[in-house]
Amino acid sequence: MQLNLRQRLKVAWNVIRNKYSEAGYDFVKWFSPSNIFASRTGNILATNETIFAAITRLSNAMASLPLKLYRDFTPVNNRISDMIANSPNPNMTSFEFIRTLEVMRDTFGNGYALKMYDGNYQVESLLLLDPSRVEPVIEDNTYELWYEVQGKNGHYYVHNMDMIHVKHIAVTGQTIVYNSVGYKGISPIDVLRNTVDYDWKVRTFSLDQMDSAIRASFILKMNTTLSKEKKTEILNNFKEFYQANGGVIIQEAGTEINPIERSIIDTKVFDVEKITRSRVATVFNMPVHMLGEIEGTSYSSMEQLYLEFVQGTLLPIVRQYEQEFNRKLLTEQERLRGLTFKFNVNALLRGDIKTRGEFYFKGIRSGWFTPNEVRAYEELPPLDGGEKLYMSKDLAPIDDPTRTGKEVNAKNEPKTDAGSG
C-alpha cells in the first residue's frame, strides 16, 4: 500500500514529534556546497588507483548509456522524460547526475537523490544527498520505509517514495538504527578494507626501502688493514678520480672494485598489485581485464570483450535504476499505460564494422529490421521507403511449407509445344 501525500506528511510529523520539538519538511539548508567524499571512504577512493579505476569504469559506463522514457518501444517526450534525460536538477546534466549517483553507490554502498516538488506537487528536480547523512528506518505502526536525514538543524524524515535510492547488496543483519534489514547497501570499500590496507603497507614498505636503501655503487676491497684516516683518504681519492674521469675507474694492484647490483623495486610489489586488482574486480563484479589485467584473456572482438562486462556487471545495475525510476517517477496509471524508463545497453555491444554489417544484413533480410531503423542505429537520417519491412523471396511461410515446393516444381517442369499430344 502506497501512502498519498497527506498520509506521508501525517506519519512523518508523528515520527518527528516523538524525537524533536521543531522539525519539518524544510530541505533548503541541506544543500550548502560540501565535498560529499570528504570522509575515510573518500580518502581511499582518492589514493587507490585500482578502486578509482573500477568506480570510474562503472560510473562512466552507466552515465554513457542512453536513458529514455518509452511506451511500447516508442520514445515518449514529456516533462518527466526531459528532466531525467537532460537536467535532473539545475546544477547537473543527466550524465553528471547518473555518474555521481553511481559513484556514491560504489563508494558508500548507497546513492540517494531527493525528489523536489513544485507548487502543484509535480517533480521538478532530483537533488543528490550525502550518503553518510542518510539512514533507512522503518515506521513502527505502518511498517513503511522512511529515510532519516541529518540536516543542519536536526533530523528530517523522507518517505521512500520521495527518495531515489540505488544500492549494492543490502545488509542482512540487525542495524544500529531501528531495523532496516534489507534496505541499506554494503559499502564495497568496507569489503575491500583488508585488501586496501595490505596493498598500502606493501607499497609503503617498498617506498621506504627505496628511500633508505644504501646509496653506494661500488665495494672497494683492500688487501691490508688500514686506519680510519687512511680509509677516508682512499675513499675521497676514489670519489674525486671517478668524478674527474667521467665514471672511468682504474683498478690498481691490491685493490678490488665490485659494482653493487640491486633491484630498485621488489618484484613482489607487482604480485601484490595483481592480487589487489583481482580482489577489486571480484568485489565490483567486474571482469579483471576491465581493470587492465590482460594476462590470460583472449577475445576475438571488442563485442566479446564487452559482452561479459555488460551481461555480468551492468545489467543488474541497469535493472535497479530502471525499476527505481519506474516506481518513483511514474504513477501507477502511467505504468499501466505501458510507460517505462529504459537504458539502451546495445550501445556497448555494437561490435566492429564487419560484425554490425552482418547483423544488419540478416535483420533486414529476415524482416525484423527496417532500413531506416538500421540507419538510426548508425546515426544516419531516414530515407523515403526505408520504413518498410522486407522478406527474402526464397523463404516460405512456416504454416504452409508446401506452397513454395509446388511453385518450384511448376517452375522446373519442361515446356512443351502447343500441338504436342
From TrEMBL:
Residues 394-421 are annotated as: Disordered. Pfam families: Phage_portal. Residues 400-421 have a biased composition (Basic and acidic residues). It comes from the Bacteria. This is Phage portal protein.
